[in-house]
Amino acid sequence: MNANKLRIKIRPMLKSDINDVVAVEEESYGKHHWSRESFFNELSNDLAHYFCAINEEGKLIGYIGTWQIIEEAHITNISVKPDFRRNKIGEALLHVAIENCYKNGIKYITLEVRVSNEKAINLYSKYGFKSLGTRKEYYQDNNEDALIMWTENIFYDKFKTLYNENIEKLKKVISIDE
User: Fold this and answer.
1) 86 φ, ψ (degrees, to nearest 5)
2) pLDDT under 50 in the chain at which residues?
3) Roughly how many angstroms between the first and final C-alpha of the chain, as a whole number?
4) How far is CA 101 from the centre of its chain?
5) Over the stretch 32-59, which tens digit does the pLDDT of each residue have?
6) What is the pTM assigned to this prediction?
7) CA nearest 99: which of 14, 3, 178, 1?
8) Is 31 exposed, middle or buried (0-12, 13-18, 19+ CB in 10 A)?
9) Catalytic sites, residue numbers
10) Which domains does the chain have, with CATH numbers?
């Protein structure tokens, strides 16, 4: 194994993670972040699937959440601590969320992303998400528009081929324990 490879563990979010998750939210989004109560509610919601990225020191460094309804998943939020960004952690979290969708028979994945968040848009595009419009003034902190992005059916060969190519590249630079 490459000694320079970043090692992380990605596991389901626990209620005991919520304070650390809210700290990541505060670092990422300032005062416009989800509350502790919101995350407690999510963990009590049967539709919600949340995962945390934990570094080798045992610190929570990122998370992702989805709602899964019938055959569609909606990525509700994803964030990585600023000091750990640009290390493929967000991509690793997206990978685990997509794997969870496969496991649960989810066919389509959607999300909203700030129109100004080029790095996130590039990541989602890399995984086959396409823009299908905008939600005007979606974000309350500055009334920024949200780009609405969707995948095609993730069980289609076109999506699976792109996905598998990306995962092979990802595994060369980051080790993910699940």
Assistant:
1) 65, 25
2) 1-2
3) 17
4) 12
5) 678 889 999 999 999 999 999 999 999 9
6) 0.92
7) 178
8) exposed
9) 112, 124
10) 6-177 (3.40.630.30)
